[in-house]
Amino acid sequence: MDVDSKDSGTQTVTPVEGARTLAPAGTIPTQRSRAGGSPHGGRSRRTWFVVAGGLALVLAGATTGVAAQRAAALREERVAEARLRISAVLPATATDAGVRDALDAHASTAVYTSARTAVAASAQQVVDRANGTLAASPQAGDGPRGALQTATGAVSAAIAGPNVSITALRAATGGVAGPEKAVADAQAAWVAAEQARIAAEQAAAAEAARQAAAQQAAARGSTKTTVKPRSTRTTTTTTQSSGGTAAPAPTGGVPAGGKVCAGSGGSAGEASAGAVGEAINAYRASAGLGALSISRSGSLTSHALNMAATGGIWHSGGDNIVGCVSNGSASSLVSAWSRSPGHNAQMLRTDVSSMSVGAASSAGWLFGAVRFS
Q1: Among 38, 72, 120, 273, which is least packed by CB within 10 angstroms?
Q2: Residues 337, 282: contact at Cβ < 8 Å?
Q3: Which domains does the chain show, CATH number per domain?
Q4: What's the pTM value of the predicted model, to 2 decimals?
Q5: Is the CB of residue 361 less than 8 Å from the CB of residue 269?
Q6: Alpha helix (H) ranges present in the chain?
């Protein structure tokens, strides 16, 4: 380095070629490019910014992709867990529904069974009452009794039927009231007719007793008794049904409650029991009924002989009907019985298959006693 001294005393430094020039204090040196152009050795600040931004974008993209994958995996995991929970709950729900349905069905069955049991018990009471009506109404007639038996049979079958509904059981039970009333009414009508018949027979017996007494008085006062020939004699019929109550007989020979067959009595002999039985069967045939077997009864024959010898009729306790006719005809005796409701009902019974008969005659009269079984 050259030093040039001046008079002023001020020194001037001359730069030497190849030597650095010092920048003034307080300034920032500027880096020159390799070509002597821009600073930073050819790399601009913008380039660094671009590189840094790209790297940031790459890092951000990578981070975003990982987060998305993690979120997707988390969603799939949650869906899988939800599916597992649903799969676990569904069988339990189905089981609960089945149990609930079973309990509901069981409760309905119990309620229905209880209701039907109550209706069946009430229906049985109706059947029992109807059977009592039948037992108390033996003379109600086959028609009304048969209708009631059919109705009660339908109710009994409905009670026993496991598949018969409550409605059907109630309908069958309701069909009993009508036939039961018909049976009761028919029995009441028969009782009224029987009472009227008994009253009429009592009046007739009283009249016959009065006439017999008058005849006896006239006979005692007459010196001569004229007896009409049998062919011109008026036929007299007297009958008595089982259970009937007759006026006391005027003579000591006929027991109290019996009836006098005026003009009969004395020597008596056995008559044909078969003829009386055949006459009854002929009458049954005319009414469309079958014949009954006929048998001679020794006890009834003895009773018929006793009545014929005494001259009256009464019940022995072993017969259903007794009677006497003055013309000695079995068919006349049956005809007389048929004109009395009580005797007629006995001869036309449908609950019997045989009859036992006893018959006797005295003074042209025929006496008969019959028991149906």
Answers
A1: 72
A2: no
A3: 71-183 (no CATH), 259-372 (3.40.33.10)
A4: 0.38
A5: yes
A6: 45-135, 142-160, 166-174, 177-221, 273-286, 298-310, 330-338, 341-347
Indicate the residue type of 344.
N
Residue with tokens 């003379």: 139
Which residues make beta-bridge pairs with 359?
368
* pLDDT per residue as tens digits for the range 56-109: 555 666 667 788 888 888 888 888 887 877 777 667 666 777 777 777 777 888
Tokens of 242: 């089982």
Q: What are the φ and ψ backbone dihedral angles of 25, each rounded to 5 degrees?
A: -65, 140
Amino acid in the structure at residue 73: A
Rounded to the nearest angstrom, the gap between the alpha carbon of residue 251 and the centroid of all alpha carbons in its chain is 62
Whether residue 18 has pLDDT greater than 90: no
At 137-167, the pLDDT tens digits run 887 888 999 999 999 999 999 999 888 899 9
Give the whole-angstrom CA distance, residue 96 versus residue 19: 102
Helices (H), 175-250: 177-221
**Reported confidence tier of residue 265, pLDDT bands at 50, 70, 90:** confident
What is the three-class DSSP state of 362? strand
Give how far Cα 322 sits from Cα of 190, 314, 338, Å: 20, 7, 13
